[in-house]
Amino acid sequence: MLGNVGAGLLCCLVMLTPSVSLGATGSEVVVPPADTDANEKVNELRIDLNMLSHGENRDGGLSSSEIDNKSRFIMGRERLILDYHRQGLDTRLNIQHNGVWGQSGKGAFNIFEAWARMSARNGLFAQIGRVALAYDDQRIIGTNDWAMASLSHDVLRVGYEGHGHKAHLILAYNQNAENLTLGGNFYENGAQYYKSMLTAWYHYDVPRLPLGASLLFMNIGMQAGNRDNDPHVEYQQLLGGYVSYRPNHWIFEGSYYRQFGHSEEGLKIEAWMASAKADWSPNTRYGLEAGYDFLSGDEYFAVPPSGSIGYVRQYAIKGFNPIYGSHHKFYGAMDFFYVSTYVFGFTPGLQNAFIGAHFQPIKGLSLKADYHYLAIAADLTDMDKTLGHEVELQGRYAFSKDISLSLGFSYMTGTETMDKLKRANGDGSLRWGWFSLIVNPRILSTRW
Q1: pTM to 2 decimals?
Q2: All domains in the chain, ordered by first residue
Q3: Cβ-based burial of 13 (10 A; exposed 0-12, middle 13-18, buried ≥19)
Q4: Mean pLDDT of each 10-residue bin along the chain, 448 residues long
């Protein structure tokens, strides 16, 4: 079967390169179309610099095992982005460094993106390399750009885009190294969380209507066992869809996904989530939004008194996992959910009801205020469902097209349930302030 897939992908790649041939030395030689003007500039190179300075002041909400519940720090992230384009070919190299100010060592250097995309005039394309994937509202697959390192994937992506249709097939297979010893195909602690991934995504924009809909299917292989005892791969699946309707002054969004298959421990997965959101913006100056998210949770959740050991035998995982999404965007800016974990790794799910408003009083300045009511989804013995109430204030000012400053402050009143499930330390009041300064100039743009 893999041989047939490989042959099909090779045929697709051949079809996608009608304007490229190999010279006698094996190097690429561009063969321009017959109707191309000899003086036409067919190559384009862009070099961009993206610099992010981000600071936070946290007060409360950390695990009781932490010595100090208060923290102040500044992080920096720098990216050098090189984009090249010509007819039928696009490439990108995105070199990234990130670290905390004053951190010992040199921080972390890595290649965030490095890919080549070959496309044909009939809408077919193939892309290979390290890619920052983002689909629909980024709830399931997103760049998670709030995290300094962000998310990218080593993949082969092939598909078609045209006439209102978009169809993508994504394939990934990860290893720690190329050698065949010391565990062979066993995969752990790699750059990606999964061993293998197959994703199919289809999107359709309805003609003459501001309506778009997507279907998403994922088959994810997770490394299970260990090097010396039954090393194998367990597969879990995700299936669902996303709809967006944008009539005048309104944006309506909705999604529904189910997870099934088996976890790394071999437990059956039976989880689901649903979301709905509405945004009303009568003009560019102001608008209102409201929505509701429901993510299923585990029915058996051990919460023993602090200092003791809890154990529960679980027969199925019912806690939904939004896997590779941009979590910070959805479940409260303080990132208590789906970024940090609950005690003992179980999840009772989440209900997130929110309402907010956004304003633009003057050119370049945007303000936003949101309220979240947060509760668990599962019924837990002797425990109220309410987790807390969170208020968020954010502001952004663009000094120019490539310089902007964002500020934010969040306040949360947590309940006894929040304290038990998260082992939060403090008096139930949690505060968090932050700023982000972004400087992203285009250094060079040239054509020849």
Answers
A1: 0.86
A2: 53-447 (2.40.160.100)
A3: middle
A4: 44 44 40 53 96 89 52 93 97 96 83 97 97 97 90 97 97 84 74 92 96 98 86 95 97 98 91 98 95 91 50 77 93 84 78 97 96 93 89 97 97 87 66 95 97
